[in-house]
């Protein structure tokens, strides 16, 4: 299970819409296992395939209770079919390094998704896990949590990120 490099903002790939999975083969299994490995190594709460450069509608969610556990759930072609209530909490993203801010999300969601064999499954998520799946489905639609905050905050982050990238480049050059 090789760990993959995570695509980070402002890579234009993160704005692309991912495609439906149609082949439930070993390649898909390998993708899911690579994604899980990458998520645990980061570590992160969830990961969408686009974050390792694959534009397919595949999500993994970290279901571990502590860092000794490597439990995850894979959702293929996930669709949020119902939303209920609201929650506001701190959110971050492995593709948006070192930035956390409050984001409003639905409190409860119902999700339809396929498993690795193409069987349809239904899930209900609440609170933290509801936040994670909403964040990951956004990724599949080319959206980041930065698109859900005020333009003022977003622009401040963009400036900071540009500066960070410039400094990293200068360090490498020097
Ligand atoms: Zn993310």
The number of domains is 1
Question: Biggest sheet: strands, sense, closure?
Answer: 5 strands, antiparallel
Tell me the number of helical segments per DSSP (H or I, 4 or more residues long). Answer: 3
What is the CA–CA distance across the termini?
35 Å
Which structural traits does this protein have?
3 helices; 174 residues; alpha+beta; globular; 7 strands
Task: Walk me through this protein's architecture.
The structure is a single chain. The chain has 174 residues and is an alpha+beta fold. The chain has a single domain, classed as Peptide Deformylase (Alpha-Beta Complex). The protein has three helices and seven strands. The strands form two sheets. It has a five-stranded antiparallel beta sheet, sandwiched between helices. The longest helix is centred in the C-terminal third of the chain and has 23 residues, at 151-173. The radius of gyration is 16 Å and the shape is globular. Zinc ion (ZN) is lined by residues 93-95, 135, 139.
């Amino acid at each position: 299970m090789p760990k993959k490099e995570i695509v980070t903002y402002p890579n234009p790939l993160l704005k692309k819409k991912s495609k439906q999975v149609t082949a439930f083969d070993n390649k898909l299994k390998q993708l899911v296992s690579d994604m899980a490995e990458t998520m645990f190594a980061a570590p992160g709460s969830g990961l969408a395939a686009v974050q390792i450069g694959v534009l397919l509608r595949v999500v993994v969610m970290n279901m571990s209770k502590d860092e000794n556990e490597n439990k995850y759930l894979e959702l293929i072609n996930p669709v949020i079919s119902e939303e209920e209530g609201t929650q506001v909490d701190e959110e971050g993203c492995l593709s948006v390094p070192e930035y956390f801010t409050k984001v409003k999300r639905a409190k409860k969601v119902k999700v339809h998704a396929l498993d690795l064999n193409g069987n349809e499954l239904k899930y209900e998520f609440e609170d933290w896990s509801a936040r994670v799946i909403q964040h990951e489905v956004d990724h599949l639609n080319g959206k980041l949590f930065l698109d859900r905050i005020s333009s003022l905050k977003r622009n401040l982050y963009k400036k900071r990120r540009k500066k960070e990238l410039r400094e990293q480049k200068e360090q490498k050059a020097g």
